[in-house]
Amino acid sequence: MATMYRSLLIPALLLVAACGLLDTNQPDIVEPDDVDSPAGADALYIGAIADFVLAHDGDGDVDVGLTDGHVLESGLMADEFVLSTTPPTQQEIDQRRIFTNNSTLFVYYHYLHRARAAAERATAALREFGAAPDEDFRIGEMLSLDGLTRIYLGEAFCSGVSFSRVEGDEQVFGEPQTTEQIFQSAVALFDAALAEPGTNLAESDAALEIFNLASVGKGRALLNLGDAAGAAAAVATVPTEFAFFNEHAESPAQLKNAIFAYSDGWLWSVSDLEGDNGLPFRTAEDSRVLFEDTEDVGLDGSTPQFTLLNYEGFDAPVVIASGLEARLIEAEALLAGGDLPGMTSALNDLRDLSGLDPLDNPGNEDEAVDQLFSERAFWLFATGHRLGDMRRLIRQYGRDAETVFPVGSYLKGGSYGPDVNMPLPQEVQNNPNSVGCLDRNA
Amino acid sequence: MKAGTRRWLLRTGRWVSALLAATVTLAEAQQSSIGGTVTDEATGQPLEAARVILAGSNRIAETNREGRYTLRNVGPGTYAVRVLRLGYRPATDSAVVAPGEEVTVDFALTGAPVQLDEIVTTATGEQRKLEVANAVSTIDAARVTEESPIAEFGNLLSGRAAGVQVQKSGGTTGTGTRIRIRGSNSVSLSNEPLYYIDGIRMESNPTSSSLDIGGFGSGVGAGPSRMNDLNPEDIESIEIVKGPAAATLYGIQASNGVVRITTKRGRAGKARWNVYSELGAVTDHNTYPINYNGRDADNPDFDGFCTLQFELDGFCAQDSVSQFSPLDDPFTSPLKAGLRQQYGANVSGGNELLTYYLSADYENEDGVYRLPAFEEDSIRADRGFVPDHQLRPNTLERVSLRANVGANVHSNADIQANIGYTSSDTRFVENDNSFLTITGSAEAGGVPFDFNRGWFFTPAELFAELANQGTERFIGGLTGNWRPASWLTTRATLGYDVTNRTDIQFFPTGQVADYLQNRLGARSDNRFQTTQTSVDLAATGRFRLSPALASKTSVGAQFYRDFVSGTFATGRILPAGSETISGAGVTEAREETVESRSLGTYVEQEFGIKERLFVTGALRFDDNSAFGRNFDATVYPKASVSWLLSDEPFFGESSWLGTLRLRGALGVSGQQPGTTDALRYYTAVAGKRGNVAGTGVTFANLGNPGLKPERSREIELGFDTSLLNDRLSLEFTYFTKTTRDALIERNVSPDLGVSESQFFNLGELRNYGAELAINTRIIDAPSMAWDLALSGSVYNNRLIELGEGVEPIVFGFGLQRHVEGYPLGGYWARPITGFDDANGNGIIEAGEVTVGDTAEFRGRALPNKEASLNSTLTIFGGTVRIGTQFDYRGGHYIDNAIESFRCTPVFNCRGLNDRTAPLEEQAKAQAVLNEATEWGYYEPAWFIKLRELSVTVNAPDAWARRFRASRLSLTLAGRNLWTITDYSGVDPEVNAFAQDNFATSDFESQPQVQYWTARINVGF
Fold this sequence. Notes:
The structure holds two protein chains of two kinds. Helix content of chain A is 48%, strand content 8%. Chain A is mainly α. In chain A, a hairpin with a 7-residue loop joins strand 1 and strand 2. The termini of chain A are far apart. By secondary structure, chain B is mainly β. Chain B has 13 helices and 51 strands. Chains A and B meet through helix 1, helix 2, helix 4 and helix 5 of A and strand 28, strand 29, strand 30, strand 33 and strand 34 of B.
């Protein structure tokens, strides 16, 4: 009987279904075929920018819940911020005692990869569907954003990050990369961006801006590889006044500056001498770190709230590369070359621009390193550079982690942990090639 | 369309037309009927609502007010006529019908303490429970609402059906309910049952809200459940179809069971009015935890935060420990009695051609929150008035109307139209994992001597927020029954359920808590329309193949369309005094649309042998818009046997055993993927470059073109028996069900840079357990009767397979996991392996607790044992009726997350501050503080609650007549009156994750509250 009914009813069912009775309208989604066009390439480009902003600055949409990005997470693990709210997953990062099942860690890591993959897709789409790829500065921009996300992954996470991709219905899993390999891949992307015809258009301000962006990005990647001289060469043509921003707006909510939202909402507090080794971001009373002493406690009810004022509103832009950073890279090259007075002079040139008192020449190389990294920390405060710098102090300058990162009693109880970078979230085990962290060293 | 297909359709159409024409002609030639009166043998009074069944046919009639029934259009022949009625023994008589003859068959029924047989509604139509081989629980809702404290639909189900767990997430008025039948069948999809009302599919979202009122994101807090839109007063009965073996014919989405609701109908007779009025109080009698704050008056930085550990570390010196709970102090507490009132009337009646039931109901309930007097005075002094929503922030107001009309349009046909309308307005307070909750602000609050009087945010600040949901809901169904021949019944049902919902959230500028940017003013106005369209066509043919062998063949087809559209509008930065988005400095809007469609057919064949052995087989076919493009349709089979063993000649007569039925069933049902789970797609996203904002797309879902529904296969075995001269009935059921092709929302490797997860049909899980229901009359005397109903169940739940290479799924604060070999969603953490006050200072310090390296399973998060005991004592010849319900749940743990939160990061738990605290309490505080393990706060969550207590006094007839009434009763009732538990928190029944699929936690949640009501029923 079953066979008979099946032979009758299944065809009937399929017939009715074929007549469109089961067709639905899903206006909220965009299918892949819809983006295979010039307009689709434009949409992927804007989408890649949005994904990058989300990964770097976080999501400031309070209606769907705030999400913290690279600036906040790396600053939390470093000595820039202290958590003044309650989620234990963020506390693990602040306390440098991070478990791989940490959901905040997963979101942070995933968002960085999503931004990277979005930039790759946009690059491909602009090349294939763009009206004039040879004149399109956006290709270089996408390559640069791709490179920057790799830098963030390399600076924040342990060695062992993989880079995978989706091709059609197939998932192509990448092999784990060492931290060095990650920065090398970033350099390659910046080189590609610099070589793009659209990045080298004469008399195009947009192209020049991307050229400078790629140059600073390359310099930062080379610095992470310990090639200060190469980094300085990469940024040599970048003017000091150059700045490339993540742009924000009050509306729509997706465009809100999450760093401001976290600070203004008293979820994050500016640190000072955190865990003994931290820099005096508050007590230095430096105009480069703006904050308000609320004389109150944050949302956890216990942490004194010092609210960051570097970002003045939801629409405040966030610098992701600048001529200032280029000059700091050049100063580090001077340090690497043994020209300590030259380094201080370069740093003072920058300070002079902001009316800051000049620094004294360091007495020795250690002091010079302290001076340089302190200047970098203040100039680049709350821009997602500090964690990478602290790791470089250990990796490239031979400092002991216990003298670089916050140590001792943690202000919410317990003590600081041993982590100097973030572990890979446990979800990476869904990549059959992944073995988690290759090592946890800086 | 292909030529072959067209020919097939034409040929089929001709056959159907010819068949119908023949049957109509046949029917018109055979106008016979059977009618009569059903009375109580003892009193001779007519019995209404008795169900009269023409054995071997599809014909069921119901007696009217005068006890009369008529079965029209009966073909010539000899029939067995059987009568069933609650509280009476079934009776059977025979009728010989000649063409055109009207045959009279009267019945005088004798009382029976327990229900032995009844009519149940199945996917194919009404039939005797005896024929159905599955355990189907029936709730006499009409009686329960009249005599028990029923504030919402979920209360009707609670504790009244074995294997059915009603989990109310908290005590806030208007919040929802999580319902599980025989455990959880799905890892990633909903485990809520399907709901049908009067034969049509009903929207029953357990959390239907976009309000950001706590929980874990917008719309996931303790919002309302749509099933609670139903007015319990309008419900006649509820049948619960428990598992895939029984729910096969309901198709995809039915694997979690089906709840069938039947609303009240009119019966032929003069108009009968019923008017009721209910007045009561909603109160909070919970004891809340005390905030311990170590004082060091000489050290302002640590005054209030001087924990024992800080003292040991030399940061402060504790001079005292402040102990205070703002919720337990009458001066600071906003927990006050709320008023509950409900008024309604219904009228029913009609004649042989037309029957009607009309009702109107008004309900108003104030939750337990009220602005404390000191804050009310302060606001009045400041502003001259207190907005109503700030004074009473949690209220429910609902108007329900219903019109059910039945018409016998022809001797062979009738139509039943059922229309329900509900308008409700509910104000919510924030609960569960929010900085803006009352419980959170109190339990994680400050010290009593600070300017907030122990609150983190004050009640005035919290109550200034308005979170309101307004709904207008229409549920309309039209059912036509046509009996073209005595052996053939056809049915067509059309249903339309539409809910228009408006969620408004308003933060008045400058008045609310200083949290994020709320104090700048904000307003959200989100509007939704949810529709469910049902078309159900069915036909049943009954044939008597021989005197001993009857055949019943049913075929049917169903189409369902679910559609949700919503628009979201938000305005932020409002000028002081402004209450509209129009005045906002920043506005934004978006919309959302979700649609799914499904189409299914079934065929069922039943053979009845000598009216005591019933063998059934069926197939169900389904297709759905959510299936992947590489998957076409699914087929679900079922087979069952029901054997009334006690009617077999070899069984003989027994003085103690009345009836015994054995039953067994095997069936498969499913659960469809989410609407867009199978699709790969992007969604729109805003980006900005060069000072110009634009819209781009971001990768949103990886999709899976091979996605298909889950398959849950269940085997159910059981028996029903009546014992001791029908004074005790017992139902026992064993079930085992296995879900294969379980949809697993597998985390995608994040380095792919696409969506976080992807659905696969990878998993397998198993539930098995047993249910027992005992109904008995302990005392059966003329002046006194005592009925006891005990029901309970126990089940085991195991995740057999999660899929190759799939890592355990972690959720719920990262504390719960789906792990192969373990119950779904269990609690996991690194265990506390020991503690020792090594230095003997009476304080467990950071280094004196040892914790394991890897997480271990602690226990289930959902109860796997439940039992309820319902007792009804009737005294003074039925004048007084006393009802109680005890409700037990156990076998599970709950995370006392609020207590661990009070230890870190708030520092006001006893374990950290009070040197007299037990060492174990100090140890678990240290473990969560220093080792971030929640292990010590997972606590056994079993409980026994006195869920219901009611006393009903039926006034003597003379009293009723004074009011020109025929019936007058007064009921005093209470709900949630007493709890026995080992749980150290406030209430083991709360859930900060509200109606979430698995996640469970006690965190900043409003515990259950008590209800006390007085109700008057007057009948005219």
